[in-house]
Amino acid sequence: MTEVNQLNKSELEEQLEQLKKKYESYKEKELALDMSRGKPCPEQVDLSRPMLDLVTSEDLLKTDSGVDVRNYGGLDGLAEAKEFFAPILGVAPAEVIIGGNSSLTMMHDTIARAMLFGVVDSEKPWSKLEKVKFICPSPGYDRHFAICELFGIEMITVDLLEDGPDMDKVEELVKEDATIKGIWCVPKYSNPMGNTFSDEIVNRLAKMETKANDFRIFWDNAYAIHHLTLVHDKLKNIYDACVEAGNENRVFLFASTSKVTFPGAGVAAMAASPDNVTKIKSELSIQTIGPDKMNQLRHVRFFEKEGSLEEHMKKHAELIKPKFDKTIELFEKFLGGKGIATWLSPVGGYFISIDTLDGCAKEVVALAKEAGVTLTGAGATYPYGKDPYDSNIRIAPTFPSLDELEVAIEIFCLCVEIVSIEKKLAA
Amino acid sequence: MTEVNQLNKSELEEQLEQLKKKYESYKEKELALDMSRGKPCPEQVDLSRPMLDLVTSEDLLKTDSGVDVRNYGGLDGLAEAKEFFAPILGVAPAEVIIGGNSSLTMMHDTIARAMLFGVVDSEKPWSKLEKVKFICPSPGYDRHFAICELFGIEMITVDLLEDGPDMDKVEELVKEDATIKGIWCVPKYSNPMGNTFSDEIVNRLAKMETKANDFRIFWDNAYAIHHLTLVHDKLKNIYDACVEAGNENRVFLFASTSKVTFPGAGVAAMAASPDNVTKIKSELSIQTIGPDKMNQLRHVRFFEKEGSLEEHMKKHAELIKPKFDKTIELFEKFLGGKGIATWLSPVGGYFISIDTLDGCAKEVVALAKEAGVTLTGAGATYPYGKDPYDSNIRIAPTFPSLDELEVAIEIFCLCVEIVSIEKKLAA
């Protein structure tokens, strides 16, 4: 491949013309392909169908420990559900709080409670402070940023590098500024980069000096067990690191089965230190009598056989790894060696993050949309929807079929090429 | 029966001695009977077992309108779930928002949002105001009061009379005081009195002049369809009344299937005016991708046959009406004509409310507890747990078996008699 930089004007113009012809021919097909959200495909969700047969009219509607799931009770979830989530979150069962169907809701509610009542160690509710700021390693997860916007929390963008957030920057910020109350992290197979925080980064997050006594790490371990290959990324246990550093109240951990069983009908959980858990439960006891125990029981029964969760996740990987492979293969085929885009090849998670030349992402997404390919909005991976480089695009390859994906990625690459060349020509 | 007032000291002492003997003999039995919460009994929850067979691995996991319940989506619930709740709430389906498993959570979250963001017509978030007050018709539901306490909302107690709140008092208060932002109502088969608001009360609530522009009625219609007899209490439609009065934004309505299908694994819903719904949905979209659609589908399929909900509720009534009847029968037998307690005989709902002589309720509950009968804490039916008369006790007769209930009510009546006579003797 030739780098676009090495082509002269007439070569670029010639190439652009050919690319545009190809683009027009795709456009005529009136496609409608969606790669905008990290959604499991139908075959993935069907892996969990047998779970629906484990809590029927014929079944015992009690847990092994004797809890009647037909009636009220159980503020923080079934003991068995806590045991299920404890190793995923890397904590003891007593440090787990089971939620409803959404870890996003648990994160939102955790911040809502901090705003209204403060957290352990807060002098006052965060909403009573002049200003509250969060550090947002970016590219990151748009729904985290949306929560900050909703609550009027000012977001500070820090680069997410290959081994995690730019810690020099993070440490400098939190050491000086007491209004910085938190940081968002998707530490494993991150959304959207697909990378995993290194041990050193985890240690630095646990140990760093913070001006705010009530600083909190929001550890959204959404893809803790979502491996694509047999070689897994290993993530250091941040709760242990925080305990060791004498900062055990610093971290809130979150996970769910949304991308394990059924998105929207899964089970979510969070974990934290005993003091945090005590405070949260006392506030939670006013909000709910408890989450859906029947659905917890379905999950517990589905995964009660040793190793069944790992087997189940392997089946997910078998379905989606070919899609990740195909995407990377096409990136290499159409964009490789041209000096117009860079990407990582994640070994887990739900996304591939690609960086175009600066100032191209918005146009690429718009052009793809015109040809029937919906991508996550450019900028969505940055606070306030504003990518300072206008270069990051999140690809969610899991939902479309392999055939649809192939077409969608081809069109996408075409759009990257067209916009890049146009930029070069205009320069 | 002889009124206690008409007995002389030695007659009272003699009676007291006999009652205490009887009490001691009960105490020796070391019973453990719980009538503290409004919980359906095992036979009631088993009525809904067949629901668990309607969403299995063999079933189509799509709604009739084509929504895939296996995956993400549906912020405000399935169209079919909204259609189910619309007539229960007395609104159009478009005015319904489906929630998770708990209407209590929807109420809590509605107030949390009001505190954080205000409601339609608010000048600022309620948490930014010096003071926020709510009117709490009492006796009322302890969990409503707990929400106010959590958010630091000052509660003003107003008497709940037989046809609803003391509206003269309510109108006077809300007309003058802009810090009064809301009122809690359980308008039908109320918790704990079991009475239903009259049409006139509903009209006055809808029409009354409020100093606060953003005043809200929290209309917890928890027992909308929970009739005990064929003659139902009729509740006037407050949403229509508010619309007619030009106050369509005034009311938030809530309901759930917690006491229809499975408590803790049911479906909750709320309703409000289009403007309210638009604002709520925009805030909700940051908190969740949507509630559990599989459980909604279970419910929709279970009740899709015309009249099946009514039939189902009749089966509930068949199971619990004998318990209400037995309670009233024993009240009449042991307490009737003695001038020491008054009660209503509700034709729906989950509770019987009994008023002892002033200053007796706490002692009665404590004495019953000592004999193994757990009642809702005395005072719980009033804001801050403080019954100004110390007279109201909430009886929840649904959970125990008829035999257990009979013993529990006998012990309870015994305790009322003992405490009343002791009061008389000490006077």
Mean pLDDT of chain A: 97
Q: By CATH's scheme, which homologous superfamily of the largest domain in chain A applies?
A: Type I PLP-dependent aspartate aminotransferase-like (Major domain)
How many separate helices of chain A? 13
Beta-strand portion of chain A reads 5-15%
* CATH topology term of the largest domain in chain A: Aspartate Aminotransferase, domain 2
Termini separation of chain A? 22 Å
Count structural domains of chain A. Answer: 2
Radius of gyration of chain A: 23 Å
Under the CATH scheme, the architecture of the largest domain in chain A is 3-Layer(aba) Sandwich
Q: Just give the CATH class of the largest domain in chain A.
A: Alpha Beta
Helix content of chain A: 40-55%
Order of helices and strands of chain A: HEHHEHEHEEHEHEHEEHHHEEHEEH
Largest sheet of chain A: 8 strands, mixed
GO molecular function (chains A, B): L-aspartate:2-oxoglutarate aminotransferase activity
Organism (chains A, B): Alkalihalobacillus alcalophilus ATCC 27647 = CGMCC 1.3604
Protein name (chains A, B): Aminotransferase
Coiled coil (chains A, B): 2-29
